[in-house]
Records
---
Amino acid sequence: MLMLNIFMIIMMISNIMMLLSIIISKKTYSDREKCSPFECGFDPKSSARIPFSLHFFLITVIFLIFDVEIALIFPIIPLFKMVNFFFWTKISFFFILILLIGLYHEWNQNMLNWTN
């Protein structure tokens, strides 16, 4: 019975706090543009079926891939002091070789050309 009373008190306090926040809130009117989701560069009132250039998507994916790979290169630098130089050189060369093969593949597929 005590748990039920505590639960009821907690529920009443939380409901009172929500009601007070709604009453005290500064937002008194609802603007259509403020309530709509924001998409950078797109008019939120137009049709959602506007053709989207796939090239923007590809550039974004390429950026994310190389950004993550650069973040993976940073731990290699302090590793230079802890491991054998030959082992460090082999790992660094292998990692940069993978980056260069990916860059060559993207260049070969004309993904880096902005205009075709």
---
Amino acid sequence: NTLLDSEEVAVLDNTKPLTWKVRKTDGTVMEVPSICIWLPPPDTESGEVALVIRKKLLNAWAALLSKSRAWLVSCYTAYLRSLGHGSVFGSFLNHLERASGDILIDVEGRQQLMNALRVVRNNLVAC
């Protein structure tokens, strides 16, 4: 196997200082003297273009996440509002408040329950 002048190859392994493992375009893998391989300088323009594209993609994802977050907040807010107004959950809270005297004989426990129910109602109304 020989390497022709100006033949393009893929460098597979360049860990040895004197010989590198390369793959030719026909798939042949061979070791050649490292001095026979010319590596072009990095393409800085391509790197800059890649950074611009990456920034645009990240901004697009950020905008999509922001819209999704706003949609979720809107949905949950509407859902929680519906829970607090005449729904099954609101009826449950009303029933629990009325029955708390029968459920809890302990005045301190009853007061804690009433405070917790008040917080839940206020949070539901605030939504």
---
Amino acid sequence: MNSENFSLSEKIVSSSYIRQGSQARRSHEQLIRHLLEQGKCPEEGWSESTVELFLNELAVMDSNNFLGNCGVGEREGRVASSLVARRHYRLIHGIGRSGDIAAIQPKAAGSSLLNKLTNSVALDILKLSGVRSVASCFVVPMATGMSLTLCFLTLRHRRPKARYIIWPRIDQKSCFKAMITAGFEPVVVENVLEGDELRTDLEAVERKIEELGADNVLCVHSTTSCFAPRVPDRLEELATMCAKYNIPHIVNNAYGVQSSKCMHLIQQGARVGRIDAFVQSLDKNFMVPVGGAIIAGFDEPFIQEISKMYPGRASASPSLDVLITLLTLGASGYKKLLSERKEIYSFLAQELKSLASAHGERLLHTPHNPISLAMSLDGLQAESDKAVTHLGSMLFTRQVSGARVIPLGKEQTISGHTFRGFMSHSEEYPCPYLNAASAVGITRDDVTLCIKRLDKCLKTLKKDGNAAKSSPPEYPEDGESNIL
């Protein structure tokens, strides 16, 4: 309804009522105008009616929704199911063009505007979360692993002689396979044990650079968010080292946006040295369906270069999901979620420490990990070799998802590389342990129920030694039900 239609409506319904309706409409439009003017996440979240009004306005700007449109091309935004059309708010054309995921589509002004606004709002949220000097970012419809691959492939054109990626070890398959898929040889640098924590071996990283030759190294591939007892890499020192040897630096920040400590590490690394790009998952940080990531960096031309490396158009679903979520939450709503997560982290640590003490175990001391915690399982290991893995299966069948039980001595071969002590980020970590994490969206009830069920499982295993010796039922390998 525009002003002319409202005026005509006054001939049908009382003008005072129409003016009231017009004012209500303008309140929605004012929110949309602020978004278009500023390109930032609104401070207060929008109502669902405002979000839906905005999305419907965008949809009517796409050619597939033009009245009387006659499409004779091979891609005309045709959808056989009306249910599918409604699921996507009739935004069918996707984002980008064949040569650039960030390009404008002539046939889809609404979808193109959606894409640009989503990237702008995502950039604002990254700044709000702690990386204030980030220059550019874009949402890509791939999860973290493939998004890292895209970064590595882009660097290939800048460093055609390079064969190796130096990678401080983290036992998570997708980030390792991201390097293999891009056609490079990962050079695994083992972590060093400091107390209970596994930390970056800076001397070993520098030795590898000198041994291989800086020109033969594509980049250093570091990690922030990770499972305890591993902690975020020493990003400032690695960034300084990369600047010294003129080597690119790509950071896997999978679920680090929710942690002020992880974001501070990235900000400081870029300030003192070199970070070329950092990649974060949409689902882990913003509670949307799996399938998207944000690639961000401090040099806008390089981030644009990465976006142009993406072949073909792309799905708009991840962009649509995260834009709807951030508009609904608002900046204040998202900051509240981050604050609650941090509070529950302290609650989880307290509850795990008490439970560990009651069962003769201990909470591992990992102060540099702001999201994940670990509890030793030495007592279970002493009872039976299978008791530790049996605990994992018991938790899973009792609907405790996300908890990872890490036995000693497991080996795993990935793309020809064998990892000893797989899942523990170390060839010889001193004890088996259980992981739990305080990720965005967790509640106190989640923690309370998890601790109650974990306590019951530990009591059952200790009471009935035969339970630990029986063959455990299958449960997801490598914590597939996990947040990573």
---
Amino acid sequence: MVHNILKGSTSPSSAASKQQLRKVFFDCDVDDNSILTKEEIKKAFGRFGSVFPGFRAWRALKRVDKNRDGCVSLEELDDLIEYAHKRGYINFS
């Protein structure tokens, strides 16, 4: 399960938690086209436990959607994972 933790809490390795974030984002790619829409990103942040997943998805797109097509492509995925990780979304299991 993925959770949002507070600063100062103990967390698992950065690489492991980023791998888990990547897996959740890919799991939420419902049409399996390797492109994440805002709704798919919203679903992922909902699974992460975000209080406002729609807002978090909107902010993520503003930050990582370099070509402004409204989606996150494979080229932008690492930036999305970094965005989620920096905001404390990690894996506890």
